Amino acid sequence: MAGRSLTLMVGMAIGAVDALAARRDQNNRQPAPALQPVVVGVSGGAIAAAAIALGMTRDQARQIAIDHPEQNVLGTKSFRALLTRRVLYPQARIRELAHAIVGDRTFADFALDPKTFGQQPHQTPSSLLIPVFSAEHGTLLLPRDLPKLSLSDLPVADALVAATRIPGALPAAAGLKDIFDGGCQYRVPHDIFAPHPALVLDLYGPQPYDSRGGLMFPLLHPSLPAIIHRPRPFHDKTLRESTIFAHQPYGAALKAPARTSEELFDTGYDITTTWICSRTDEQLLNIVDSQVLGLPTETAARTIESSRSPDEVVHGHS
Known about the structure:
Layout: H1 6-28, E1 39-40, H2 44-53, H3 58-67, H4 70-74, H5 79-85, H6 94-102, E2 128-134, E3 138-142, H7 156-163, E4 179-181, E5 200-202, E6 210-211, H8 217-220, E7 230-231, H9 237-241, E8 243-245, H10 261-277, H11 281-284, H12 297-307, H13 310-315
Helix pairs in contact: 1-2, 1-3, 1-10, 6-7
């Protein structure tokens, strides 16, 4: 998930999980535990990812979006603060929103295996992965790279503030003054999941394939290097077909929303549920494992095999 249109992205994320769960129930017709995806979120997508990792329902997430409209979360622009403090939105309430979602949880609370209780978060698989950009180390993936920040754990609300800190726009998280938005270097770091199947949610469309805004970073903050290329990897046809695009105008995340929080959330929810409902099981098996769809492994294998062209079968292409 990428993008900083918070309410739209949260709606997309919740809709994706709900639609996949509905498909699983349709195929399985047996009571099943709630889906527990492993989620990575870039920039505002990190907040959406946290909601998914916690298993938040549509009603819960929608109410938080209503209670925290984007204009209140960002606050008022101050060009004086931009010149003196390099912060366009000095009164931003990102942490207030983040805390409404994750509370006082730390990365230790997102461990996938309860048997790892007591281990440090970077030592155990996590349901929530948050890329951030460090002026010293480059792109880091939390919680894996917490030791590079000399941390054993971290309140996730602080990580979300850091992950959404667009240079020159938003203030730093407490104790993380040189940590910035995870999209500074890689706008869509899909390779985090390779070679596993993954569904990507994107605020924009496939283009542009590269963003040059990183050239201005040294002007926005003295600790940042210029980043010439910030790739968006949708040249790859397979990746495009595994991505749900919201098709917002490029740069829309920096503009004031023209719709209410309810409208934005519902729009995002409808985008992903419609996309998933329009796909067959064969198509969805390219982005999720068979158990997510409620299909036995052998059934999924036959489904994939039957969907291949004769040439693919003969030559063993996957």
